[in-house]
Amino acid sequence: MRKFILTLACFQFVLIVTNAQTTKPAKGIVGTWRLVEFSDFDSVTQTWIHRYGKNPKGYFIYTASGYLSINVSNEQPLKLTEEEAKKFNVNFYDFFSTKAFAYFGTYTFEPGKGRVIHHVKGGSVLWYNDTEQPRQIQLKGDTAIIGDNIRTRRVLVRVD
Known about the structure:
Layout: H1 2-22, E1 31-42, E2 47-49, E3 57-62, E4 67-73, H2 82-87, H3 92-98, E5 100-110, E6 115-123, E7 131-140, E8 143-146, E9 152-158
Antiparallel strand pairs: 1-2, 1-3, 1-9, 3-4, 4-5, 5-6, 6-7, 7-8, 8-9
């Protein structure tokens, strides 16, 4: 009887371990998200401003191990040859505000608070480097809305 109970306990242990190793965690924020809207509300004109166009390009990537990569581009990106780029003078703030930006680092997801914190390590938004950028987030299936949806709205759709 003792051997039977020991064998049964071992069998249950193997089942628990096997199940724990094969059960996938809930997706939550983890994945690759395609940007479909990047809007800011203008309280003076009472309209949504689409700085990167009505169909911006870009991806927000949140890995299971806590890494973050964000790339955003205007729906009509600036196209220059390498030689043209060498001679191109640009206001950096205007460029990143309307044409493209990117940053990377790690993140902390706090679903109970409806918040994600981007711990920025580098990128083209220079004043974000080595800072924490908290963002409100709402997840609805494979759609995420970053921002308060009153003044700022970044709409993402999960692609992976």
